UniProtKB/TrEMBL annotation:
<feature type="domain" description="PpiC">
    <location>
        <begin position="276"/>
        <end position="387"/>
    </location>
</feature>
<keyword id="KW-0697">Rotamase</keyword>
<keyword id="KW-0413">Isomerase</keyword>
<dbReference type="InterPro" id="IPR023058">
    <property type="entry name" value="PPIase_PpiC_CS"/>
</dbReference>
<dbReference type="InterPro" id="IPR046357">
    <property type="entry name" value="PPIase_dom_sf"/>
</dbReference>
<dbReference type="Pfam" id="PF00639">
    <property type="entry name" value="Rotamase"/>
</dbReference>
<feature type="signal peptide">
    <location>
        <begin position="1"/>
        <end position="23"/>
    </location>
</feature>
<dbReference type="Pfam" id="PF13616">
    <property type="entry name" value="Rotamase_3"/>
</dbReference>
<dbReference type="InterPro" id="IPR050280">
    <property type="entry name" value="OMP_Chaperone_SurA"/>
</dbReference>
<keyword id="KW-0732">Signal</keyword>
<dbReference type="GO" id="GO:0003755">
    <property type="term" value="F:peptidyl-prolyl cis-trans isomerase activity"/>
</dbReference>
<dbReference type="InterPro" id="IPR027304">
    <property type="entry name" value="Trigger_fact/SurA_dom_sf"/>
</dbReference>
<dbReference type="InterPro" id="IPR000297">
    <property type="entry name" value="PPIase_PpiC"/>
</dbReference>
<protein>
    <submittedName>
        <fullName>Peptidylprolyl isomerase</fullName>
    </submittedName>
</protein>
<feature type="domain" description="PpiC">
    <location>
        <begin position="173"/>
        <end position="273"/>
    </location>
</feature>
Length: 459
């Protein structure tokens, strides 16, 4: 058995944990099984989708052998998780699925457009994505389990930096620190009332004998739970947003609420049962049409804040903390962070959101933009102020300036080595075969790699 390098794992991990990818039937050869790890398969379509995910983001893809190696390691983590009884809560899977579907609706404009793009029913797409999400969550949990004890000290970073010949130090692109204050467009009273009346109509229909689950499946805009008839499973107190939980806990089993409004939209809730400190509910969620919301109110609000900030009567970070409706950045004074590293320093290159890149290119460091309309990842209409906090010009890597980036590199290298060690210890626990077509990749040296033993994937 040859040693397998796991350095490709973290290159692909971001795609594995974030990409909402579906097979689109681009030819029967894509269904061929090219690798097998116990009962888990890697299809040619998996390899092509991984490759195209880089192309679609204007990034240089790794070699396909490297991608295949990452996919095989991913399957091995799933196989080992099964052996080691590593599981994830279904509620976490449902929550992530909901987020992914909302993101896709925002990207495609509507659920109908998604169906037309993929040529599959929404239920089939959700089913496929749900398994992907579950597998990705398990892989993430396995990765965390393997690397939980990996730590990096300043001495480790210094040693790494000094090991690089001075004439070989990389040239670092410009990076920036950016803050934002976000206000969401609000639906009008008329729009809310229309949604409220629809939910009240659903409530009456259930009271008259119709099935709540069927109505939820057909009408709820919480795409993660709709496929389960609106069922949210058991939730611990404090897990749901306050308006939802407050209304649910006032109900008796099988009783329905009045219409409840939360940050997610308007809900009709039915309590199914309680169990100690947990409760089991289902709901029908309706949201306003975000494409028709008026941006005048949030624009005027942010314009007033900008005036106070410009007059130095209010600091940007204080304003972001107190007034921004983007909860992911408000507590950090509005600072945007790299989703992979968690750093507040963002590379000002092709990986940056294009509209943000364009705006920063016209701003001076220390300035605050005028209110700018934009669309959030989950498709909501919003307005934001941008604060150009700082910029580091392109430069040769420097220990002090780039300490955080160097630290992340050292941490990633250590995690790779930890996974290498884990693989060498675990590889004998699973049965691995790779199609002869990829023997040149030297992924696994095994004498049992015929197409028949891989399950006879079609060509």
């Amino acid at each position: 058995m040859k040693k397998v390098s796991c350095s490709a794992l973290f290159i692909l991990m971001g795609w594995l944990l974030t990409a909402p990818v579906f097979g689109q039937g681009q030819g029967v050869s894509l269904n061929k099984i090219i690798a097998k790890v116990d009962n888990y398969y890697v299809l040619r379509s998996d390899l092509e989708e991984a490759y195209q995910s880089y192309v679609g983001q204007n990034q240089t893809p790794p070699q396909k052998c490297q991608l295949l190696e990452s996919l095989v390691i991913n399957k091995m983590m799933l196989a080992k998780a099964e052996i080691d009884s590593v599981v994830v809560e279904e509620k976490l899977v449902d929550s992530e699925l909901d987020t992914r579907m909302q993101y896709m609706v925002g990207q495609f404009g509507s659920e109908k457009n998604i169906v037309e793009a993929y040529g599959k029913s929404l239920e089939m797409l959700k089913s496929e994505l749900r398994q992907q999400v579950k597998d990705q969550k398990i892989v993430q949990k396995m990765q965390q389990k393997i690397t939980t004890d990996v730590k990096v000290t300043p001495r480790d970073v210094r040693r790494f930096y000094e090991s690089i010949p001075k004439d070989s130090l990389p040239y670092m692109p410009a990076d920036v620190e950016v803050g934002q204050i976000v206000r969401f467009a609000k639906p009008t009273k008329e729009q809310k009332e229309a949604l409220r009346q629809r939910l009240l109509d659903f409530k009456k229909r259930v009271q008259d004998g119709e099935d709540f689950a069927k109505l939820a499946k057909e009408n709820s805009e919480d795409v993660g739970s709709a496929q389960n008839g609106g069922d949210l499973g058991f939730a611990k107190r404090g897990a749901m947003v306050a308006p939802f939980e407050g209304a649910a806990l006032k109900l008796k089993p099988n009783e329905m609420s009045d219409v409840v409004e939360s940050d997610f939209g308007l809900h009709l809730i039915q309590l199914l049962e309680t169990r100690g400190a947990e409760y089991h509910a289902r709901h029908i969620l309706l949201r306003p049409d975000y494409n028709r919301l008026d941006l005048t109110g949030p624009t005027q609000y942010l314009d007033s804040l900008r005036t106070l900030i410009a007059a130095d009567s209010l600091k940007f970070d204080k304003a972001a903390h107190d007034y921004s409706e983007d909860k992911t950045t408000a507590d950090a004074g509005g600072l945007l962070r790299d989703p992979q590293s968690g750093s507040s320093r963002l590379a000002m290159d092709g990986s940056m959101e294009y509209a943000l890149f364009q705006m920063l290119d016209t701003m001076q460091v220390g300035s605050v933009s005028k209110p700018l309309p934009y669309r959030t990842e989950d498709g909501k209409s919003a307005v934001r102020l941008l604060y150009f906090k700082s910029k580091v010009a392109p430069h040769t890597a420097d220990f002090k300036i780039d300490f955080e980036k160097l630290q992340n590199i050292v941490l990633t290298n250590k995690k790779n080595r930890a996974i290498d060690d884990w693989f060498r210890k675990s590889v004998s626990d699973v049965y691995i075969t790779v199609d002869p077509e990829f023997q040149g990749c030297r992924i696994f040296g095994t004498t049992q790699n015929s197409a028949a033993q891989l399950g006879g994937g079609g060509n």
